[in-house]
Amino acid sequence: MIRKTMPSTAIMAGTIITMRHNQRSFCEPVQSTSSSIVWPFDAKGMKTVLYPNRLNGAKNKIPVPLLLSGVGMRRKSFVVVAVDVYMIAINVSPAVLQRAKSWDPSSSFTLSDVLLQDIPSNSDDVKVSATITFMREITQQQLLDAFNEAFKDCGADSVQAFKDTLSKSLGPGNLKKDETITFYWLPKGTLAMFKDDSAIHFLQSPEIARKLLDVYIRRGTSVSPELVDSIESNISRVDTTVV
User: Fold this and answer.
1) Is the entire prediction scored with pTM above 0.90?
2) Starting at the edge strand that comes first in sequence, how are the strands of the sheet with 200-204 ordered?
3) What are the b/e assignments for 94-122, b being 16+ CB within 10 Å?
């Protein structure tokens, strides 16, 4: 089933250039970890804790933090050189991250299986986010076409719905250096997506939600092997009690 809903207002901004970042926050408001806490790996300028307040339905509900669990670069290889395309960070909710700590990479279950399994007691909470910051300018069509191979086994209607929703989130024009887009994985196969200060757009499609997460974190299919190595090395080390 595919269900698209009207966008709601969201504010998000952030830029990363390799090992540095500016002072704009990724979500509004953002609370960060104490300066006394040393993250167990190099965050490469990405926020270690995100609070996706605007995605919570109840106004008085305390938003669930999303903890940085891996970072990596998407690179495009040419004949004699590889260029950086975008930096990607994966943040995971504490409850889901705690469950993922027992995941065995050699098991028949993928990390996507573990992260996207619904937790009834947290049925409204965000499970995972992917924050993508571009290192160079690309066209919107280049980004959309990049999903063709990953989604080749998905239904044509599902793929088109994803591309239409993402296009609305991106707005007109090219994706410029330092611009950021974010995907949130919610329960029941729902995706939320937006770019910088744009409105949030939603898409409900379990098959697309699973495939999209595999694009980033599944070994063998990920666009960033560096990201997969980072997540697999660090999920057991991230402290889920720091916030």
Assistant:
1) no
2) 3-8, 200-204, 190-195, 180-186, 128-134, 82-92, 66-77, 49-50
3) bebbebbeebeeeeeebbbebbbeeeeee
